[in-house]
Amino acid sequence: MAVVIGALTTTGVAGSISAQWGVQLQINRLWQLGSWTPYSTVATAVENVSITTYAGAVGSVSLAPSTGCTDSTAIISVNISPAACGGGVAGLSGSFFLMSYSYSKGDAIGLGQESWNGQRWPGGGSGGGGSVSFTDAPSFVLQGPSEGSESGDVPNTGITFGGGPTVNGSQGSVSAGFPGLGQADAVTYGIVSGVGGGSLKADGKVGQGSASVPHQPVYLG
Fold first, then answer.
1. Residues 26 and 76: beta-carbon distance below 8 Å
2. pTM for the full model?
């Protein structure tokens, strides 16, 4: 295990508070009758990154759905260079497809934060010798319409609705104790056309916002 020093680690993203990154493998084993040994193993590499920033540091990202057979333009660019003790630690860099976004300001006198979660399918891989086959990178990655919600009274939760009507709900909670304060808010749901640029400072106000951004890799022979 290595220890990563935050004060010496860079992300290439303004106002970064925390970062998580990794490379996962989606494994498909082709089992065969009469043997506990797979006929073959197919692996797909997936790279993930999650960056939390102070609200407004990144700006806004358009979530316009794909209109042709080209890559989605809903991307975040990172350059994670970890400073580690106890061994080398690989970072990640480049453009990632934005899979989800969230805004949070839960303290009336606190500061707003935004979280950005990205993913990509680089293709290829290593390990396993000749018994593992790694899939190629997709031909392109399509983006579909994004759904999201916002609540609270901050001026901007980083959620921009567009592309259809919005609907309203509500939520509330409270617990016993002294002073036993709770909270109740209206919630707005709808199709989201953009995210980012939420309020950093808004004393006396709180708010939440979130959006999921569907992406689909497409493979052409």
1. no
2. 0.92
